[in-house]
Each structure stands twice: as C-alpha cells, then as structure tokens.
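--- STAGE predict ---
source: upstream dedup step, 1 unique chain passed
mode: sequence only
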Amino acid sequence: MKPPNETTLIIVEDEFLVALGLEATLQSAGYTVLEPISTVAEALEAVYVRPADLALLDVNLAGHQVFPVADALLSQRVPFIFLSGCDESLPARFLGIPVLLKPISPEKLLRVISHTLDGVLAHGS
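--- STAGE serialize ---
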C-alpha cells in the first residue's frame, strides 16, 4: 500500500461541516484530499478528470443518490467507501463495498480506508 502522503482521496459529501471534518481527519493522517465535492454532477466529472486512489461517497447528496458516481468509480477501478446518515439498503451490485454510518470516529474512518486500500493491493487492482 502507498503511504498516506502518496495517496489521494476524494470526498463526496453535501454537508459542509461533515466534509470539513472528514477532510481535516484525512489531512492530519497525511492523505492528500481533493477539494470536497457536493453534487453528483461534480463528482462524475471528478472521477474522470481528477485521479484518486479512493473515494468517500455520501449515499444521499441533497436528495440524489450517489450510485452513478459509484458505478463510474467501479468502471475506473477506483475503490470507494459509502457514508450514510442512516442504515439504508444498497443495490446488490455494491455488495461488499464498505458502508460507514455517520457520525464516524476518525479512528474507524482511517482503519476502514487502510483496510480498503490494502484489499485493493491484495486483489491486484
């Protein structure tokens, strides 16, 4: 696995304060974080324009589901983690994708990111 200082993450989150908290946690751990994204359209553009090693995706962005972004990330072979404010069911195609319920402790967030990135290397992605 690349060390955090060589790993770039995308945060797709529509709640400004939540996005800032995630960004601060990740930067404190040494990750490079692209400017948080708050809409599905901006996130879709970012998938193809701003390469990243992993994405954090809020399932519900101002009433719009983030699934088109998740599909784009899958097509680009970029791992991601869903974030959600409630325990909601996800489409079957996302079985096995980590889901973190908000609020998320910094320790748990960093542990799941590390585990997800380790899994990518283990599977040769």
